[in-house]
Amino acid sequence: MKRNKILIAMMVIAVLCTGVLFAGGQQDAAPAADTTSSDAPAQVKVAMLMSGPINDGGWNTSAYEGLTRLRDELGFEIAYTEMVPQSQQKSILRNYAQRGYDLVIGHGFEFGDSIMEVAPEFPDVKFYQVGGEVQADNVGSGVFGLGELSYLAGKLSAKFTKTNKIGFIGAMEIPTTLAEIDMLRETIAEVNPKASFTVAYTGSWTDVNKGKEAALAQIANGVDVIVAIGDACDVGAIQAAKERGAYVIGWSGDFNSLAPDIVLTSMVQSVPDMILMQGKMLKEGNWKGMSKVWGIADGVEYPGTWSKVVPAELKDEVMADFEAMKAGTLHKRVN
User: Fold this and answer.
1) β-strand pairing of 126-130 with 25-27
2) What sign results for the dihedral spanned by CA atoms 16, 17, 20, 22?
3) Cβ–Cβ < 8 Å for 143, 313
4) d(CA 93, CA 115)
5) For 100, 129, 203, 245, which has the most beta carbons within 10 A of its beta carbon?
6) CA of 69: how far to CAs of 11, 72, 184, 286, 300, in Å?
7) Cα–Cα distance between 295 and 335 in angstroms, integer?
8) Domains and CATH numbers, the chain
9) Model's pTM, two decimal places?
10) Strands 77-82 and 103-107
11) pLDDT tens, 291-333?
12) How far apart are CA 320 and CA 221, in angstroms?
């Protein structure tokens, strides 16, 4: 957890200080030190494509952490391309396959179609989609359980709000986000019938300013708790909440370190653990083309660091629901 906080803080500082993000940035990350003999098996090579920057503090930062864990813990050679536009997905996938990478990962729902088109051209290369449900002999995928974390976030926001106005800021109107919104709306209405729920989209996973603008607009209308699923846009929402005295529930990464008194908690989806599991199966020779839903019971989804501003009894109530989901006695998953 500490490592995740430090990485997020460093990455987000880079976003805010540079103010410039380069599209299609391709990097061959430094491989682990070579301690093998000349007759040892060739080093496993893994590449990743991301539609956003590795320093967004959330979805893509966590993917990059997972990639570096393959290098540091398993000795793999790694490479990545960030800020991949949809028009370049297939050419970049092909490029990595042609260069002899054993596993090529598309990080996000948006890579599914491109992976399914390119994969048959390279039957000896394995492809994996994080956040999707594609499958073939050489294609696997993993999607996080939908509904569980949004139920917890909905209950927390509904009981914490003082104005009875809760906001949601998302990047894109995609199926996974819509499923989480549905559970948020349902839970808020059930827990606090007096509360309203406002939804806004920024249209970008990378624009911090758009996240801030959307949050400021909601706060101006009385919203005092915002649930944010927008990668770098979450950073903007946190900035706005910090300036105007509102609160944020983060998503994907653990955002508490950015504003401990503003970020109530974060609904963490541990992409690093999902990616590391793929690497271990690849190394052990038992990787298979399959699609799997990863949820709270698998240990990859959980509330992150809690702010001290959350009353102890409310935190305990939310965590009790989390433990019930983990034990299989409370069912809120919708996929």
Assistant:
1) unpaired
2) negative
3) no
4) 7
5) 129
6) 16, 5, 33, 19, 15
7) 10
8) 2-144+271-298 (3.40.50.2300), 148-269+305-327 (3.40.50.2300)
9) 0.78
10) unpaired
11) 999 999 999 999 999 999 999 999 999 999 999 999 999 999 9
12) 32
